Amino acid sequence: MRDEQFLPDPKPGNARGVSWGLEHRLQFIDFRLRWEGRLNRTDLTEHFGLSTPQASLDIAKYAELAPGNLSYDRSSRTYVAAEEFRPLFPRSSARRYLAELLATKTGLLEVAASFIGSAPEVDAAPSPWRAVDEHTVEAIVKAIRQKLAVTVSYQSMSSSEPTTRRLSPHALGYDGFRWHVRAYCHKRERFSDFVLARILDMDRFELSRVDPRLDAQWHTVLTLVLAPHAELSAAKKRVLELDYGMQNGEVKLPCRQAFLYYTLRRLGLHTNEPVDPVAQQITLKNRDELQPYIDAVGAGA
User: Fold this and answer.
1) Looking at the structure, do residues 170 and 103 belong to the same domain, yes or no?
2) Buried b (16+ CB within 10 A) or exposed e, 87-121
3) What pTM was computed for the model?
4) Residues 184 and 261 placed together within one structural domain of the fold
5) Contact, 144 vs 194, CB < 8 A?
6) Which domain holds residue 175?
7) Which regions of the chain are under pLDDT 70?
């Protein structure tokens, strides 16, 4: 798999000698040239509310930084991407492009805020949205920012009725399906995950004396080594190597220990029992090394 190739910075330390506003507009030019193959001054004036002379200056600055990336087509009065185009900014990466496509499709990003001008048709497999109360998120973020402890009414899977917990939150986490708050539970005297949607009520904010640096599972980063199932044919292994961007038959995935359970479950690797290689096509190559960490974590609160 070919890695993204970007033009080197014209000055050491990523200092291009331009203001933040100009750099943002240069990123826009770079993005449009790469993904739409062309750009004109109207694109800049409409997206940023610039004057035409300022748009011309921005394009000239981009041409100065990346002279081989564009040329002017007089017949269409449009700047077009050169055959040897190489993106100048990571903002133009394929990952960012696909992320913006998905974000605009799901409504998380307004179309006007995206650098994409003419988007291809796109859709995604539906997933039920986990309800999150606006005020709960606001209060939890406030507690994290101000280092506060908060008393909550929490509905866990292990209890038929809500229980009262005093939490000292220090981080937010997303497991691919649900948002959690990482917090010290004063009732159980340990750090754990709490699903935001299960927080029913909150009150009694007070200064917390808990040091987030003591959350060892949050600060411990493990490396998962994924590989094709050993019983698959060589052809199928090669397909998986392409799917996962593997090198030499494996790919390494950094993961906080606090996210280990969720990550393994999402990958179908949460059990060590024999599985059908057709149904479970990848394996955790270093399971023995990680097993003590796997045993130490659970599904959260």
Assistant:
1) no
2) bbbebbeeebbeebbebbeeeebeeeebbbbeeee
3) 0.80
4) no
5) no
6) 134-213
7) 1-6, 8-17, 298-301
